[in-house]
Amino acid sequence: MIKSLPLTLTLPMPAIAEVTLPHQGLNYLRPNVILDFVSINPNALLFVTPVAVLFASLGVLGHVPLRRIPVAASGRVIYPISTMILPELRGKLIINTASRKLKFLENQVVKPDEFAPSTSQVIGLALEFTFQQPE
């Protein structure tokens, strides 16, 4: 018998008070905030896709789109976040399927001659979630 692929539903990061920051139509998960992804959808999480990084430089908000590479949600995953446009802005996304939580950690590596740490920082990560739908 041939099994068909599971039906999926992909949802963007919703607006959640004190957890996300809205910017240009996307909601960005704040660093160091634990998100219970059951609050987005109760079904099994299959993938998390980082979409963009939000940063502030000299008080001005900017965002950098990321390559949309789905990260499989299986066990405990630590996924590095970086961009070719601004390699100084780094972070990591931690997905824990056992506890059904995820967290974005801002981990900025700064080149002093190009990017001043006192004036620039990562302040959010936009995500998409792919859930399995019941059959």
From TrEMBL:
Keyword Transmembrane helix: yes
Domain of life (superkingdom): Bacteria
Transmembrane segment boundaries: 44-66
UniProt keyword annotation of Membrane present: yes
Annotated keywords: Membrane, Transmembrane, Transmembrane helix
Name of the featured protein: dTDP-glucose pyrophosphorylase
